[in-house]
Write a structure and sequence with these properties.
Helix content of chain B: 10-25%
Distance between the termini of chain A: 30 Å
Helix content of chain A: 40-55%
Oligomer: heterodimer
Shape of chain B: globular
Number of helices of chain B: 10
Largest sheet of chain A: none
Number of domains of chain B: 1
Radius of gyration of chain A: 17 Å
Strand content of chain B: 15-25%
CATH topology of chain B: FAD/NAD(P)-binding domain
Strand content of chain A: under 5%
Structural class of chain A: mainly alpha
CATH superfamily of chain B: FAD/NAD(P)-binding domain
CATH architecture of chain B: 3-Layer(bba) Sandwich
Largest interface: A-B, 36 and 31 residues
Number of helices of chain A: 8
Distance between the termini of chain B: 15 Å
Chain lengths: ~180, ~550
């Protein structure tokens, strides 16, 4: 995709991972403390969270959470500001996969979208606190500032038609004389 | 080495403390201005929509930090939680030089005459400590004017037929209207309402040597990148420092007010930026920490004569914590109505502040400030799924086609909505933290429902094809407009300070911030805090007879 031009190291290997995912359904990541490129998640957890986020904000004519790197935002924050949510994610992600296996016999990330939606709806009913946590974090990672690891290539801001920052005030581009 | 004695030590460099520091130092008093936060500048704008003072999911950019400053929040069911600054229940305002005025939206309202006489106007409200202020609008009027002209206010209130009498116009014109304004203004007039340009502590022409607003998206919650928004950090505090009589010390956390054997203040004890305990002796101790922290400081100041905290003989310190309850209505339009032109808010009406049948007060209504994409999510109506393709589609289609109108409902003060010093939890410095408990008065919520309906009607008249309301809950209200915890009054048994903002119990301790507000108006309170600080400083200086300390 032309709008996934990598600009940071992290994005470089994630883009590589995305390319791999497109072809072979696995996010492969190089480098990083865990040996898998993630700060907090295991590769399997990352795959599950990535898939959850994609259901929360699916791709349509605009990129969804997967293309916007929302799981990257959550992983970074879990190692920083969201340390207190680490236990909830460890338990919660395992719970999502458990529900998926029980209902459909596969891990969440391997399910087709409609089964993922069913599984997520069940998770929302059973462990609402965890679902709301991921929901909020997914929204932050998708609609928030790219500097925090999500909203890659300002995907959501482009979607909303927001003149892209950085800007020095509207006067500078609304004034026809300046243009 | 002991610190040099000063005439006045001021705790807190926000709206109140900034003005007091300037007025006292300009009159020749020596002043030590202590601020627990840092001094940020225009370069700290950062444009980070997840870490600013409005959206704190990744932290409160302008303080306090999450690590060292816990509070205890008690919910409606009595459950206690230790909360950090970026949690909603924390009721955070800010911790930095300028306080809330550093990153606010800068609405600069004068309260109306009836806002000072709520009890006389509406009578007693069951379950509320609704009361009149011991001063009236005309006691403050010259100081409102002083704040407007010294600090710089723009806007045009000439079309506001409900405004209290004023002698001078505002010093600066309003910004040109944005698209929302152009849609809402004729609609309000068709409804027989009286729309006008919101007064703001914001330069719209060069003023005080600083430039005008460039109408960017990074407004409320952010540092103003071009220094066009006026707070105490770029007006009165630099002026105070320029007198040579005021020393500003940042990263200084005050522990308690020091008292002598007879119970008079001798200064304050504080932890400096290096964590060392310091004693700053002073003739006057002036508490300007905001409604939560000012009350906490008084309650943490224990003495043989004041076993329940300073100024708290009759158990009024920390009581009546209030702020504003914000109901909103949101309208979806056929066409694009949002032009992303800062500050966003520009048009207001005061038709519903008073005179609403069966209601004790009301609220100003205005269009909402600039909205960043993440902030917009809170405007998604209940009928839309919270996630999935429909949610995304709604956000995409509605972001530029909605207008939000909201207003700060004047709250009915509640005695049990309060700040206490927590008996167990201590902060990084070992100081007992603020414990917040209580909730809103039911009548406040009733007024909020009324205001939301009026906002909705306005949007419908403006052509919204769909409207919905956002109604507040009953939980404690104490965030950015926090007020009321050190009530000003004539009777020492039912108030904490007298009308000069001096403690009833100790004549050389003052509280000069929104803590002293008896009621909080149906408006953003900043200009009233500033005006009252000018007024109280003036009265303090009239009574000042020089230092009693031997040096």
């Amino acid at each position: 995709m032309p709008n996934q031009k990598p600009s940071l190291k992290r994005r470089t290997f994630l883009s590589a991972g995305l390319a791999a995912a497109a072809g072979g359904a696995a996010i492969s990541c190089g480098g990083g403390g865990t040996g898998e490129g993630w700060r907090f998640f295991t590769a399997e957890e990352a795959r599950t969270v990535d898939a959850i986020c994609e259901r929360i904000i699916p791709a349509d004519r605009d990129p969804g959470a997967h293309a916007a790197g929302v799981v990257n935002y959550i992983d970074i924050q879990l190692a920083k500001r969201f340390k207190k949510h680490q236990a909830a994610y460890r338990k919660g992600v395992a719970g999502v996969d458990a529900v998926s296996r029980a209902r459909f016999g596969k891990r969440f990330a391997e399910l087709p979208p409609d089964q993922q939606t069913q599984a997520l709806t069940e998770v929302g009913a059973k462990s609402g606190a965890f679902f709301n946590l991921v929901l909020n974090h997914a929204m932050q990672g998708f609609y928030g500032d790219p500097r925090h690891g999500g909203n890659r290539n300002m995907a959501s801001w482009r979607m909303l038609g927001l003149p892209l920052p950085p800007v020095r005030g509207r006067q500078h581009y609304d004034d026809p004389k300046a243009g | 080495m002991a610190l040099k004695h000063v005439n006045a030590v001021i705790v807190g460099a926000g709206a109140g403390g900034g003005v007091v520091a300037k007025e006292l130092s300009a009159a020749g008093l020596s002043v030590a201005l202590l601020e627990r936060g840092r001094w940020y500048s225009a370069a700290d704008c950062r444009k980070d929509d997840l870490c600013n003072q409005r959206t704190q999911v990744l932290g409160a950019k302008f303080g306090p930090d999450d690590e060292r400053n816990p509070r205890v929040a008690v919910d409606g069911k009595g459950r206690e939680t230790v909360v950090v600054a970026s949690d909603g229940a924390y009721s955070n305002n800010a911790a930095c030089v300028g306080g809330g005025t550093f990153s606010y939206g800068a609405m600069a309202w004068r309260y109306m005459e009836k806002d000072f006489r709520m009890r006389s106007t509406y009578g007693a409200v069951a379950g509320s400590t609704l009361e009149d202020w011991p001063i009236d609008y005309f006691d403050l009027e010259p100081y409102y004017e002083k704040a407007e002209w010294e600090m710089g206010v723009s806007g045009d209130v000439s079309n506001n037929i409900f405004k209290a009498p004023r002698r001078k116009p505002l010093p600066m014109p309003p910004l040109p209207p944005n698209r929302e304004y152009r849609i809402l203004s004729p609609a309000a007039k068709r409804l027989g309402l009286h729309p006008f340009d919101i007064p703001m502590l914001r330069n719209t022409v060069p003023y005080n040597g600083r430039r005008s607003c460039m109408r960017c998206r990074w407004c409320v919650g952010f540092a103003c990148e071009v220094n066009a928004r006026n707070g105490t950090h770029n007006t009165v505090i630099p002026e105070a420092l320029a007198t040579g009589n005021c020393e500003l010390r940042t990263d200084c956390m005050t522990r308690e007010i020091l008292l002598d054997a007879r119970g008079r203040a001798t200064g304050v004890a504080y932890f400096d930026a290096n964590g060392r305990l310091q004693e700053q002796t002073a003739d006057l101790a002036i508490v300007c920490g905001g409604a939560v922290e000012s009350a906490r400081l008084l309650l943490n100041t224990k003495h043989r004569l004041f076993p329940n905290g300073l100024g708290n003989r009759y158990d009024w310190v920390g009581r009546n914590l209030q702020s504003h309850t914000y109901p909103a209505a949101i309208g979806l339009f056929e066409q694009e109505v949002y032009d992303d032109l800062g500050p966003g808010a520009g048009i207001a009406i005061c038709d519903y502040n008073h005179g609403n049948p069966g209601l004790a007060g009301g609220a100003m209504l205005a269009n909402e400030f600039i909205r960043l994409p993440y902030q917009f999510l809170s405007a998604v109506p209940a009928g839309v799924p919270q996630w999935g393709p429909e949610h995304k589609n709604f956000v995409r289609n509605a972001y530029r086609r909605t207008i939000s109108i909201m207003g700060p409902v004047q709250e009915m003060p509640v005695f049990d909505a309060r700040v206490q010093a927590d008996p167990k939890v201590k902060d990084y410095w070992g100081i007992p933290v603020a414990r917040l408990s209580g909730g809103k008065h039911p009548h406040t919520l009733e007024i909020a429902g009324f205001a939301a309906a009026k906002a909705e009607a306005w949007l419908k008249e403006a052509g919204a094809i769909r409207t919905w309301k956002r109604l507040p809950g009953a939980s404690l209200s104490g965030g950015q407009h926090q007020a009321g915890t050190c009530r000003m009054g004539n009777d020492p048994k039912t108030s904490v300070v007298n009308k000069d903002c001096q403690l009833h119990e100790v004549d050389n301790v003052y509280v000069i911030d929104a803590s002293v507000h008896v009621t909080n108006g149906g408006f953003n309170p900043a200009l009233t805090i500033l005006a009252n600080a000018y007024r109280a400083s003036g009265n303090l200086l009239k009574a000042w007879k020089g230092s009693k300390a031997r040096s």
